[in-house]
Amino acid sequence: MKIGILTSGGDCPGLNAVIRGAVLKGVRTHDFEFVGIRNGWRGLVQNEFMPLDRHSVRGLSRQGGTILGSSRTNPFEGENGGPENIQRTLDAQGIDAVIAIGGEGTLTAAHRLTEAGLNIVGVPKTIDNDLEATDYSFGFNTAVEIATEAIDRLRTTAESHGRCMVVEVMGRHVGWIALHSGMAGGAHAILIPEQPKSIAQICEWVERVRDRGRAPVIVVSEGFLLAGMEEAHSTKGLDAFHRPRLGGISEIIAPLIEEHTGIESRATVLGHTQRGGAPSAYDRVLATRLGMAAVDAIHNEQWGSMVSLRGTEIDVVSIASATIGLKRVPPARYDEASVLFG
Ligand code: F6P
Q: What's the pLDDT tens digit per position in 132-165?
């Protein structure tokens, strides 16, 4: 059997470890052959492939990014897009099945393609940890580590100047990265999309911290809404899946804090640093296990399925169950953290 592997959507630490796990197990256990599909769905639409044998995945689990390249291409758009064209391309390359490694946008597209009869198995990938049907996705742990280190560093400069630091993390419309890095870094408030807050409430927390002689550190998720906002702050247009590009809410909140409290405030947007560099050991292990499980799912012809983490076990679920909605931070998890705010 010949398997094509693609990595699509925003890159994420651990993608290469999935590729390595899949290729090594696929070659050893199932005698599969592999080919790399370049730049996500774009490779299938524009015929871009690369060789992928066991030698090309050597030492790959510690390497950030993706050797295959990635893009936010919608496979249903463009003159060579759509299931019939893509199936023709796969047939021409002799590819029997595809492992699609991606987040919400990629897996939604994969689900539609499997409904049209294509042989696809999904692997969940996202630093945002917003996919249903998997407890964690690889990349999240690394992003939280990076954000936590940044919070620790910003705290020492905040304390030196007696300033308030507003640290903005990614996460799109869910607050997992903010919740975990904020708790790990001992933030004085954590602002997430699931829990809109007024500027008065934020300033009350900030003033309590200042009154104790400390420098306030606030962690805000890019999708956070100040009370009264109807949509998350977005000034950068839409991505290929017609979703707003987020970022910059900290630059609105920091001046408001300064204006309301008189405390000098600074905003830091961590941005793509959270996706860069080597994956954590946890993410390497999870990604390798998911890659190995994906080739088993292909061997079992479980088309339309996705490998996932349930507790400590790797499970096989339907892609549809992972894309029915976003996995949001439950109120109880926020309430638990907020006891320590201010
Ligand atoms: O989904 C991962 C993610 O990093 C989000 O947290 C963020 O909003 C988005 O991708 C950024 O996308 P891009 O890399 O296209 O700027």
A: 999 999 999 999 999 999 999 999 999 999 999 9
Distance of alpha carbon 176 from alpha carbon 218, whole angstroms: 15
For ligand 1, say whether the CB of 130 is within 6 Å of any of its atoms: no
Ligand 1, atom 15, lies closest to the CA of 10
One-letter amino acid identity for 175?
Answer: G
The residue contributing the CA closest to ligand 1 atom 2 is: 10
Kindly state which CATH superfamily the domain 140-276 is placed in.
Phosphofructokinase domain (3.40.50.460)
Ligand 1 pocket check for 103: Cβ under 6 Å: yes
- Single-letter amino acid, residue 225: L
Cα–chain center distance at 32: 29
* Model pTM score: 0.96
CATH of 2-138+279-322, one of 3.90.1150.10, 3.90.660.20, 3.40.1550.20, 3.40.50.450: 3.40.50.450
3-state secondary structure 36-75: EECCCHHHHHHCCEEECCHHHHCCHHHCCCCCCCCCCCCC
What is the tens place of the pLDDT at every residue in 265-308? 999 999 999 999 999 999 999 999 999 999 999 999 999 999 99
Cα(216)–Cα(128) distance, integer angstroms: 25
